[in-house]
Every structure is written in C-alpha cells, then in structure tokens.
Amino acid sequence: MKKLFFLLTAFLVFTNVNSQILDPVKWTTKIEQKSEGVFVLTFNAVIEKDWHMYSQFTPDGGPLAMEVIFKNQAGNFSLTGKAKESKTRTAYNDIFEVNETFFEGKAQIQQEIKLTNSKLNKVEVELNYQVCKEVCINQSKKFTFQIPATKMAAVPAIKKDSIQGAAQNAKIADGTKIDSIPTPSLGASNVVEAVEKNALPETAETAPRSVWSIFFIAFLSGFAALLTPCVFPMIPMTVSFFTKQSKTRAKGIRNAIIYGVSIIVIYVLLGGLVTWIFGADALNALSTNVWFNLLFFVLLIVFAASFLGAFEIMLPNSWANKVDSQADKGGIVGILFMALALAIVSFSCTGPIVGTLLVEAASNGGIAPIVGMFGFSLALALPFMLFALFPSWLNSLPKSGGWLNTVKVFLGFLELALAFKFLSNADMVLQLHLLEREVFLAIWIAIFGTLALYLFGKITLPHDSPLSHISVGRLGMGLLVLTFTIYLIPGLWGAPLKIISAFPPPMQYSESPMGLGGSSRRDAKTDLPEGAKLGPHGLVVFEDYQSGLAYAKKVNKPIMLDFTGYACVNCRKMENNVWSDATVLPILNDQIVLISLYVDDKRKLPKEQQFISPTTGSEIETIGDKWTDFMISKYKTNTQPLYVLTDLEGNSLNTEKPTISYVGVEEYYNWLKAGIAKFK
C-alpha cells in the first residue's frame, strides 16, 4: 500500500512539474494531390485563448517571424510561391516600433509543391515560430508528409477509414505523434469533423500591407528614375515623335498610350520572370542569409559608384541596335520595341534602382516582385501618356541640364547608405559586432553630411556642370539633408532615432548600450569582466553561463539567470519598465551577477558541441537551442522572460517561487530581496 501511495504521489509531482512546459499551439496536417506530381501541404493550428502566433510576414526588427523550412527539398521538389496563410491581424508594437502581424485562435499554412523526383516518398518540414501572451515561447516543430503511392486526386492525411495513417503523416522530432490529432476513441467520423473545424479559408499570399508598401515605394522609385539623365530627355523627344509622325492627333495619342502600356508590360514581365526563375520563397529565405546580404552590399556599392560618376554600367550596344532596327518597322510591334529600347538605353540609370527594388520586393514573397515592377513602370510610363494627351504641357517641362546629374548623384548617395543596411544584417546574424550601432550611425552621418556639402556646391563630381550659383530647390534639399544629418548625431549618445528605427542596429547592439558618454553606475568600470558586456541600463551582463558562473564565484554574489530572446516583446517590456525602476536597478547593479541566455540565438554551435537532447529528443544545433534545452531540462518550462536566482552551485534561492516571469515592479522587487537574503 505504501509503495502504491508513493508511486501515486511521485506521478502527481511529475505531472505538476511538467505542466509548466507550455505548448499553446496544437497542429494537424494533411496532404492533397492537386494534379500529377503537384501536392498541397496543409498545416492547421489551434491557438489557445489570449495567445498569438507571429506570421511569416511580420516585419524585421520585431518579434520572430514564422519560418517554413523544407528539409529535403534539393533535387526532390520545388515550391510554388510562398506558403499561404489564413487571416492575420496587424497591430503596432511600441516596444520594437513596428507593425507586427500575427494569428489569433486559428491559423492555416498551405504550401504547394511540385515533385521533381518521382521516387520521393516523403517531405520533411520544420516550422519555427514564436507565440506570445504574457510570456513568449520559441517553438520548432518537425513534420513528415508521406507522399501517396497512388496518384489519387486528393489524399488527406486524416481519412475516415484510417486514423492510424493520419497520425503517421505528422510527427515531431522525437517521433511522437502531434498532440492535436484526435484519438481513436472519438470515432472516425468525429476525427474528420474535428479536422474540418480547424480548417480555415485560404487568403492572400502576402500581408496586404507588404504589397501596398512595395507598390508605393516602387512608384516613388519610378519617379526617381524618371528624373535621371537617361530617361528625362526621352520624354519630349518620344512624345514629339508620336505626335509628328502620326497622321492625326488621335492616332498620336493612341500610339503614346500604347508606348506607355508597353513600358508597363515589359517591366511587369521582368518581375514575373524573377518570381518564376528564382521563386519568391527562395528569395525570401535568402534575405536573411549572410552571403546574400554581403553580395547585395557589394552590388549596391558598385551601383552607387556608377551613380556618382566613377563609371557607367551599360548593356551591350548590340542589344540596343537590334531593338532599334525592330522599332523602325512601325505599328504596334514597332512601338513595343521602342519601349524595349528605352529600357535598354536607360539601363545605366534605372538598373541600380530596378535591381534594388526587385530584391527588396522578392524578399517580401508572393507576387511582390510583379507588384513592384508594376508600380515602377507605371510612374515611368505616366509622363509619356499624359504629355501625349496634353502636348502643350511639354513647354512647361524644365530643360535638360546639370540638374539631372544632380538627381543621379543624389540617388547614388542613397544607394551607398542603403548598402550598409545589408552589411549590418550580415553582421548581426553572425553577431560579429563589427558594425555596431555607433559605427553604422557614424557612416550614415558621413554619407548624408557629404551629400549636404554636395548639394550646397562645396563638392563636385566628374559629370557635374560648373556652378555659378545653386537653385532655390537645391538649397532647400540641401537644408533638408543637413537637418537629417544633424538629427542622426544624438543617436551616438543614445537617442532612439524613431524616424529610422528600422535601419540601424538596435540599442543593445552597440559598443555602449547607454550611448557615447552616456551616464551609468558602471561608468567607472573601464575594464569589464572577461566575457561580459554592457546591457540594458548599463548593467554588466554575461551571455555565457560558464563565464558568468566563474565571475560570480570570484565576487561571491548570487546569479540571476535571465532566459530571454532578441525578439521577445515582453522581455523588452520587463527591461524597460521593471529593471529601470529606482528600487530594482540598484539590486541588479550591485547585488547579483546577471547572465542573459538568448533562446533565439541562431548562431551554430561547433559540430562537437551539437547533440540530441535527452529531455526533448530535439537536435541541439544552435546557441539558442542549447539555452532552450537548459531551461526545459533544469526548470521544466519553455517561456520567456524567465528569471531564476541561484547560488554558486546552481540551486534556486527562492524555494517557494523558484522562477518568476512577466510581473510588476513590486512583486519582482520582493522576489529579488527574498532570494538574495537566502544567499550564503
């Protein structure tokens, strides 16, 4: 009887401990055959009340966007566009200062694939996502879809006559069945009904905001390209050609409109070609790739040098000559070739803009490259059509001159500044700290300061005309750029610079998180302990457990483990609102050793340090994986923020409440004082 009582008690204790491992998103999957060799993979999620899961399309600089990773894609199948999502919500996040996009209640992800290997029998997919309420959880779930042996029209993973087969189509890393698949005791008909209830209607491929923002940016880029020396002089020449060569005014207008529409068709086809060849999903994945960001940094530097007058990027003259010969034939075909000739001749000016725009649009996924090219070409084509409708407007056009080169140089400076954003992306992914916030801002201050001097006529470049004076417009633009440059300078001292918050590295990614010359109680410490850095509010922070433990033993202070994330919203709220409090900050400064362990750190562990977790069965490949596994195995939870006060042997000091999470100042202060009081 005693043994039975002991076993029952142990079981209840074990159940209570593990109940802290939260998994607020339950998944079911199915696979359907759309046509020969084409399948649709569907992930249905049920999200617990008050939790929200972030979309693939939540912007950079905020919470972690969902990743859909296909493990065995190479040589086996291709993706048709980006994974589609069901309805999402968009709301402003005042911590990261971005509009975050997320799911509530239910979610559905669908991806169409086309087999290139007829012998393929399974598709392996990994979903990485973040889900938040008062705390945040970074989840990684692995699924295996079995390719049906028979090419049926629709083969769902869950069927009325095969409960067991359904479970086999969705497994996580440790081989256990996904817990959202209903149990056989429900009955076959109930299983199908449960899955159908979880299904959500398919929606647009990308978040509407992304597509619209791409369109407007592209439209403005088209106007910028219009004001370059390669395009602007073509407007009166081309419109005059149509009006003079046509027998009637109506025919001239018609030909000019066809010309404008041809420009749009050419650029939209270009956008479609990029999407078809590379695949929006592939380019979206590349946008966070280190080598892609480095490559695009180099390309933008080359483009900027071209705009500034170092050299010209030109397509072969033979291309333009062949197109010109076709344009001479007249008719609609001739007009189409005239539009193509414009695209080729103006490439040295429009190429850098189109290249930048295409990559930025493609990294948003879906039809964004096509939308981007439509916006760009619409702005480019409108003047030709409008001046054909109203020829008298031609007299009001400013004459071509040196101002056109000024526009081109201005764009060159913008390309140069944008290039360092891509270099910064690569640096932050690798956590090299070579291009920290202060260095980035110093580079931008130098670039825009030099641009201001150029606009004021203090600097000239190779293709500039002699200047006896500067125009009022150029003076106004110079003052605007100078104002922006001055605005950037306080950022070196810790100013948030909200206007450009999406561009520079975050405040924490800097030589001094308090800014140059920023005040801190730690200012007297010019020599930080080995392995430490300055964190929020000038706190000395360790990001490696062993380094922090060694220092804690040296100074004989308790340890506070801070399980956090780079993209954890509530972690930042705790740091901003609780850690900064006048009663809490002195304790964190003087009475504990702070060790912050980032569970979303994507840097790879050395091969010899990678392992299979005995607790979860997951592959531990990154630094973030290691700290997540440590948190789960030691403290039986997977939420962030999570705070633990320990002694030098790793034992929790707060016996009644070993861990604490997202709480107010008073509760956090009392928890700190109670734990520290027990340290010996």
Automatic annotation (TrEMBL):
**Subcellular locations according to the entry:** Membrane
Annotated signal sequence is: 1-19
Q: Which domain of life is it from?
A: Bacteria
Per UniProt, which keywords does this protein have? Cytochrome c-type biogenesis, Membrane, Signal, Transmembrane, Transmembrane helix
Can the keyword Membrane be found in this entry's annotation?
A: yes
How would you describe this protein's topology in the membrane? Answer: Multi-pass membrane protein
Q: Which InterPro entries match?
A: Cyt_c_assmbl_TM_dom, DsbDN, Thioredoxin-like_sf
Where is each Thiol:disulfide interchange protein DsbD N-terminal domain found? Answer: 37-144
PANTHER family attached here? THIOL:DISULFIDE INTERCHANGE PROTEIN DSBD
Name this protein carries in UniProt = Cytochrome c biogenesis protein CcdA
Q: Which organism is it from?
A: Flavobacterium magnesitis
